[in-house]
Amino acid sequence: MPTRLERDSLGTKRVPAAAYYGIQTFRAVENFPISGLRLQPEMVRAYALIKKAAAHANGTLGLLPSRHASAIRRACDEVLHGKFDDQFVVDVYQAGAGTSFNMNMNEVVANRANELLGARRGRYTHVRPNDHVNMAQSTNDTFPTAMRLACLMALPPLLESMQELEAAWTRKARQFAGIVKAGRTHLQDAVPVRLGREFGAYALAVRKARAHVEQTARALRELNLGGTAVGTGMNAHPRYRRLAIAALRRWMRCPLAPAEDLMERTQSLADFSRLSGSLRAYALELIRMANDLRLMASGPNTGLGEIDLPAIQPGSSIMPGKVNPVVPEMVDMVGFQVLGHDQTVAYATQAGQLELNVMMPVVAYNLLQAMHIAASAGRVFARRCITGIAAHRERCEAFAHRSLALVTALAPAIGYLNAAMVAKESLKTGQSVHELVLRHRLLSPASARRLLDPARLSRGVS
């Protein structure tokens, strides 16, 4: 492979001649052959926006020659359009704080800017990675700012997915509004409910989870850009911060603002932990809903069999005709993974010392990955599962009439002990609660029919 010779503060090293990245990126590739995982495209786009905003601010302030500023901005625009995606090669598990990733961006932008100004890659004749592309910046303010912007970029698809899932549950709630079924608590018989009410409760849970995610994400709009190394703003012009954030606000079309305290924002990753915690709560709800569907669809002949899930693929390589609840199973696995991502974010959040938490790259990767898979799982859950659910009305209503918990409705009329006696005898003999109440002359036929009507009992209160 043809190479070129580059120099940094540690010495010289040969770098692939065709690469837009440079010596510091190449050192990171050599030092960290860990996972083959890369930070998500949102991080690349967010960082390119930051470098563009910095060039704009420094050019406006007269600190960066206009030719250099223009070339940097043009190079950043090309990065934003995905032209150099293959040049961001640093592993997720890299040097603390994300310095390697920051330098990867600095070198790619610098080399492309030099090309635009007529110089060859690796020469840095006009634009240098540290002096020009990284002017008025530190990894310690740009990386957390990029994390915030990247999460804000990933947020709309997640919220749209959650909205779609809520809508799917709501449509099914209306469709199944009149279907009475046995309620269950502790996996034992409970008083009757409506299938539609169950599904409506799922819809509300998703709506609340969505509101929680939105609320925790708002804190990400406050940026510590301009704080440089430790939040004091050293080496940045006093007006740089305002100019750069104003540019980001325009380009992102988001109400971004300077942080109340640059040092606090540089020290703390708590905002990311809060967002991750809201994803954890959502994942727990998804797991619960998926498991409920697996129970209700169990069978078809030896389980509850109250609903049918869409048959979207064969379920067994050996048992002909078997169809499994594959989408809820996938949702469970995604939920478990989101919980794992949140645990990593939590450990990393508490791992900072003094002026900086250096664990940012692993937080960025895990949080964005959780957002991505939660969004995808929600869409598939809605489209490939919930939308196609069919209910077995007769089986649901049969279970409702056989539920021992119907005696709950009798307690005010015949007393708790008499109701318990009826429940035990029904379980022992197989006779229905209705039959036993009449046999023991505890109620008149009309009163028994009214009190033990599952449809009436399942209406609930408004």
Brief characterization of the structure:
By secondary structure, this protein is mainly alpha-helical. The protein is built from 18 helices and eight strands.
Describe the largest sheet. Answer: 2 strands, antiparallel
Indicate the CATH architecture of the largest domain.
Up-down Bundle
What share of residues is helical? 55-70%
> How would you classify the helix and strand content by structural class?
mainly alpha
Question: How would you name the CATH homologous superfamily of the largest domain?
Answer: Fumarase/aspartase (Central domain)
Q: What is the CATH class designation of the largest domain?
A: Mainly Alpha
The coarse overall form would be elongated
Please give the number of β-strands. Answer: 8
Residue stretches low in confidence (pLDDT < 50, at least 5 long) are none
Give the spatial strand order of the biggest sheet: 1-2
Number of domains: 3
What is the residue-mean pLDDT, rounded to a whole number? Answer: 96
SSE string, helices as H and strands as E: EEHHHHHHEEHEHEHHEHHEHHHHHH
End-to-end separation: 74 Å
Radius of gyration: 30 Å
